Amino acid sequence: MPKEKHKCVGKMRKTHGIGWNQCFNYAKVERDGKWYCGIHDPIAWAKRRADRDAMWEAEQKMKRDADSAISRRRVAERKACSSFSTEALESGAIKELVEAVDGAILGFETLDEQFLPKLEDKKLKHVHLVAMTIVRDLKAALAKLEEPK
Ligand SMILES: [Zn+2]
């Protein structure tokens, strides 16, 4: 701390009227022969400005990312739903379809457990094989639809 108390050379906007007053604070630091308080210290001022700019930039990036996530979602929804009528989508037909497929898989798997050991006929064994291939494909398709955890 300087022995002699300097006043800050910074300027403050007048609270009433137009123009500037000299800062009322005592100086804390000397920069290039001029004295400044903590608020008007050009280095602290520049750091605050840089922090504010960085914060603003981060906020803008977050907004852009959110916008792009939303628009990605909309494009994906449009693509996924383009072949279905609005009425079908509104009635929840897609969810019903998923539930029906889920039920079909469960039904096939139950049949599989109950009847596979008893199958003797070669043609029936072939039908069973085809059915289980369909079940496998349906399960793979449903797994893709599950929300990521
Ligand atoms: Zn000042």
What can you see in these coordinates?
- With 149 residues, this protein is mainly alpha-helical.
- The chain folds into 3 domains: 1-40, no CATH class; 42-83; 86-149.
- The chain is built from 4 helices and 4 strands, in the order ββββαααα.
- The strands form 2 sheets. A two-stranded antiparallel ribbon has the order 1-2.
- The two termini are 58 Å apart.
- The mean pLDDT is 89.
- The chain binds zinc ion.
- The site of zinc ion (ZN) has 8 residues, from loops.
Provide the list of bound ligands, each named once: zinc ion
Count up the domains. 3
* Unreliable spans: none
From the spread of the alpha carbons, the general shape counts as: rod-shaped
Distance between the termini: 58 Å
Summed over residues and divided by their number, the pLDDT gives a mean of 89
What amount of the residues lies in strands? 5-15%
Helix content: 55-70%
Number of distinct helices: 4
SSE string, helix = H, strand = E?
Answer: EEEEHHHH
